[in-house]
């Protein structure tokens, strides 16, 4: 079960995915669907985080959708953002331009002259998949089931990423980053313990 303050639909989808995460790689489809409750009103300070118009639009559309099927996620997202990104539109465009320039500079195992601060302003965390979920994650990608694949993804802090990379426990594949660390269904990723049951790919 999940209780969430209101937020734009894309932020809510991530939260819904966390509570509906599979407990084991071989569990498909999900054994039941977890109930999620989204409050219709949030804090007075939410406006500093999310555009109120996008939040209101999301809440209204979700209130008209008793059971949220995966097939409707894209439709609802498109409706929420049909008029652009609201007050954050200009900031988004600027970030997109900076991001595109940054990507052009990134070459594996090659340092560039860019300032590290520019890099870290964009990459606050890094998405990765526990080694025990590498195969089902890759299968979801190959089958085009992107939303299913997202349920296997978790975030590593930059500190965790660099530490694990220095220990040769990070593998960069065509499908994404795989982290060799034990994953517990109840506790989550235990970064200090390697996953001895799965080989890195």
Q: What is the helix fraction of residues, given as a range?
A: 40-55%
Number of strands: 8
User: Using only CA atoms, what is the Rg?
Assistant: 19 Å
Uncertain spans: 108-117
Domain count = 3
Order of strands in the sheet with most strands: 4-3-6-5
Ends: how far apart? 34 Å
Biggest pleated-sheet summary: 4 strands, mixed
Approximate shape: globular
- String of helices and strands: EHEHHHHEHHEHEEEE
Task: Write structural notes for this entry.
- By secondary structure, the protein is an alpha/beta fold.
- The chain folds into 3 domains: 2-84, no CATH class; 85-123, no CATH class; 124-201, no CATH class.
- It has 8 helices and 8 strands, in the order βαβααααβααβαββββ.
- It has a 4-stranded mixed sheet with strand order 4-3-6-5.
- Helix 2 packs antiparallel against helix 3 (70-80).
What are the SSEs and their pairings?
Elements: E1 2-4, H1 9-19, E2 36-38, H2 52-63, H3 70-80, H4 89-105, H5 116-122, E3 125-130, H6 134-142, H7 146-150, E4 154-157, H8 158-166, E5 170-173, E6 176-179, E7 182-184, E8 188-190
Parallel strand pairs: 1-2, 3-6
Antiparallel strand pairs: 3-4, 5-6, 7-8
